[in-house]
Amino acid sequence: MPDRIRVGVVGAHAERGWARNVHLPALSASRDEYEIIAVAGTSRESAWAAARVWGAQHAFDDARAIMTHPQVDLITIAVQLPQRDGLVEAAIAAGKHVYSEWPLALNAEIAERFRAGAQAAGVRHAVGLQSRHHPAVRYLRDLIADGLVGEVLSTSLTYSLATPEVWSQRYAALFDHTKGVNHVAVVGGHCLDMYRSIVGDFTELSATLTTRIRRVTLQETGNEIEVTSPDQIVVAGLLESGAASSVHLMTGGPQGDGLRIEVHGRAGRLILRSTDDSLVGPEFVLTHARVNGSPVERLTVPMRYQSALTGAPSPVSNVHQVYADLARTIRTEQTFEPDFATAVRTHRLLDTIKQSADMGERQRLP
């Protein structure tokens, strides 16, 4: 391994996109550990435009050309799941370390195949569930573990997101339950992985999924398309700790209220609340209430939890932390999260939610 880990970014663009707005700035801020050496885009022109912006030596209009390039050590796959067919497997087969965006796969079975393949190939891996690295999320996790609210009796998660009724064609897959990038996968995956990183995993649950907004309009054509993916996700169950848990993820309408997590314990209550309805880039307010009736206290996240990227948007700083942990794992073979094993567990939770809703029965987590 050279002094710096050489990265090839699939889905790079000079002006827009998740790679442009998050991955590439995070990598650029990690110059001691990483070098952006190659990019792949939808055309040769767009790829070279991105290469000039980010200082990459190589640019391709075929993502698979990055996989076999001898100067690439790590592949970042920052395209949506429907455009990602075969790319994770190709990176693993080429012996490259891989950072894949979320969702990792259509379901837990395929995600487990990726995890097992990466393990067998001896390559390190990360997945785009970076919100668990938000400073307020990590602080809340430690406060619970340290017993600030005593024995946890119950926990809850709500998230509401405003959505328009006119959408660009490039988001059409969001409304198709077969594409793997619908609200259950994307909203559910990000919210529930953050939630379970704080309160622990479910052991059993009951779920209801329903679609309330049944048609949306495509901006480019004015045509309406049928919506088959649920926009209301309701879950109730028990956690490994024995605590009761409830979840309601809701999208639709002109006004969202963002994310709220409540942890109710014998010795008090902790509430984490976002200040907007951003899914992957919220700012949080954390409060603590004691059982003796004292005033609610707003908690300040200690400096030791703060990101090394002062002033960076939270998605960039959270992804920067994933890259820092991944670099350490590549060099030392230590384990970390979020990796493909994290993705498998989150996919398994989502699969169980869908199974419970389909069967109308309570399910135990495998």
Top keywords for this entry?
single chain; 366 residues; alpha/beta; Rossmann fold; Dihydrodipicolinate Reductase, domain 2; 2 domains; 9-stranded mixed beta sheet; 6-stranded parallel beta sheet; 31% helix; globular
Furnish the topology, listing elements before pairings.
Elements: E1 5-10, H1 18-28, E2 34-40, H2 44-54, E3 58-60, H3 63-67, E4 74-77, H4 87-93, E5 97-100, H5 108-121, E6 125-127, H6 135-145, E7 152-161, E8 166-167, H7 183-199, E9 202-210, E10 215-218, E11 224-226, E12 232-239, E13 244-251, E14 258-265, E15 268-274, E16 284-290, E17 297-299, H8 314-332, H9 340-359, E18 363-364
Parallel strand pairs: 1-2, 1-4, 2-3, 4-5, 5-6, 7-13, 8-10
Antiparallel strand pairs: 7-14, 9-12, 9-18, 10-11, 12-13, 14-15, 15-16, 16-17
Structure write-up:
The chain is of the alpha/beta class and 366 residues long. It folds into two domains: 149 residues, Rossmann fold (3-Layer(aba) Sandwich), CATH 3.40.50.720; 201 residues, Dihydrodipicolinate Reductase, domain 2 (2-Layer Sandwich), CATH 3.30.360. The chain is 31% helix and 27% strand. It has nine helices and 18 strands. The strands form three sheets. A nine-stranded mixed sheet has the order 17-16-15-14-7-13-12-9-18. A hairpin with a 6-residue loop joins strand 16 and strand 17. Helix 1 crosses helix 8 and helix 7 crosses helix 9. The longest helix is centred in the last third of the chain and has 20 residues. The mean pLDDT is 94.
